Amino acid sequence: MTAAARAGGGPALGRVGRRSWPVPTWRLGAAAAVLSVVAGVVPPAPPWGLAVVYGVLAVLAIADWSMALAPGRMGVVRILPASLTLGQVGTIRWEVANPGRRAVRVAVADELAPALQAGSRRARLKVPAGGAATATTDVRPRRRGDFRPAELVVRVEGPLGLVARQASRSHPSVVRVLPAFPSRQQAELRIDRARVLEVGLRSAKARGGGTEFEQLREYVVDDEFRRIDWAATARAGRPIVRTFRAERNQVVLILLDNGRTMAGRVEGVPRLEHAMDAVMMLTSVATGLGDRVGLVAFDRRIRAVVPPTQARAQFGRIVEAMYRLEPELAESDYRGAFTETLVRFRRRALLVILTELADQAVQETLLRDLPQVARSHLILIGAVRDPDVQGWAESDPTDAGAAYRKAAAITALADRRRLVGTLAAMGANVVDALPGQLAPQLADAYLRVKATGRL
After folding, report:
1. How many CA atoms lie within 13 A of 274 on its CB side?
2. For residue 7, what are the CA distances in angstroms to 92, 111, 144, 314, 327?
3. Under 8 Å CB-to-CB from 100, ≥6 apart: which residues?
4. Bond from prior residue into 44 cis (ω within 30 degrees of 0)
């Protein structure tokens, strides 16, 4: 059995759920229709001729059913990938083995959820005597989470093709659908660029001076005089400067809002999916540069906590914690999330809050509770902006409905700008970006914080 089959979680041969039952095929119906016509038009036709015809056909059908191979004797395996990415095309394969001495026609119907968007849930195969046959179908999942197909229905036709035996088989499997990561390439580019810029970094450019000593090297004309190491210069007899790199082992804590505002769709995708892309990019970049990343996912209660670490496996742990999340249609409890953060993580950290800047919701939750963590952590807030609202605000209305929509859009954008200003006045850095830009802009904000030594 393949690794994919083992990962799918199903046994090699499905267990028969109940005894098989007969199912007439289209050939039986066609034979009955043809014989009825023949019995009615061929003279002489006795009154009981039709009954004889049907009697013979019934005997043939019973004989066909009795000679059909029992579905429980067929070897049936469902092979599916252990995991897929949202929107990624995957393949499900059915393998059917025939232990009998003659070739058989077999139909398989699988219990696949509609959200997997399978090309087909059914397959028909002709399996040679003592051999095996395979059928496949493509799936493109449109929802994250665990999918657990459990039953297969197997139908084996008799040698005459008039009647088939059918039975359900228990074949439990699991396929995980993980969130999409469209910003993967941009994450790798930023890691490479940041590593290049780290080489020979000479000074922190702003407040705090939180830099980490890297090496001593000979002075060049563009070095700052204040970076000269006079003791090393005296020993070497030539100017020597200290070089620095951005500090490593800093802590980045990501708070992922899973409340009702994150269920709203932007460009056909829930805001939560845009936020998850940002979480994955930030995790990839930060751990790639030696920082520790953790996650707290919350709505009205804490949904997942991943302690911060810089291990390579951290990306997988965070994805594992997120992929089953579905937005809770309730207000998010920021106070509970911040309390959990302060209790678990006492060291100063960059606190990245991914939420939606809906004016009323933020006024009643985030603004009220933000001072609780702003005193001890550096705050970075990320949100995705709806381009449709921007388009409505800039449109030229042609009727009353469009005019009202434009006025509402202008008001919404003004409220959003005012909210961003209020958060900035409280000491938070805010990234309010269009779809596809949230993840890279958030990563750039993190890199600026790191380069300037603000942690």
Report:
1. 29
2. 13, 18, 18, 21, 28
3. 69, 73, 129, 130
4. yes
* Of residues 147, 144, 379, 180, the one with CA closest to residue 276: 180
- Cβ-based neighbour number of residue 444 at 10 Å: 15
- Rounded to an integer, what distance in angstroms lies between the CA atom of residue 384 and that of residue 365? 18
> Which among 94, 96, 100, 95 is positioned nearest to 70, based on CA atoms?
100
pLDDT tens-digit map of 230-268: 888 888 888 888 776 555 678 999 999 999 999 999 998
Cα distances (angstroms) measured from residue 205 to each of 210, 241, 245, 276, 289: 10, 17, 12, 31, 19
d(CA 288, CA 193): 11
Q: What is the 3-state secondary structure (H, E, C) of 127-146?
A: ECCCCEEEEEEEECCCCCEE
- In this structure, what token pair is assigned to residue 283? 């995790």
Token output for 96: 């059917």
- pLDDT digit string, tens, across residues 439-453: 999 999 999 888 777
Give the separation between CA 428 and CA 381, rounded to whole angstroms.
Answer: 7
Rounded Cα distance between 246 and 110, Å, is: 54
CB distance 243 to 224 below 8 Å = no
Distance, CA of 401 to chain centre: 37
Return the structure tokens found at 101: 């001495």
The token pair at 363 is 């006024």
Is 212 within 8 Å of 247 (Cβ atoms)? yes
Q: Is the pLDDT of residue 207 over 60?
A: no
Cβ atoms of 446 and 278 within 8 Å: the answer is no
Residue with tokens 């990343």: 293
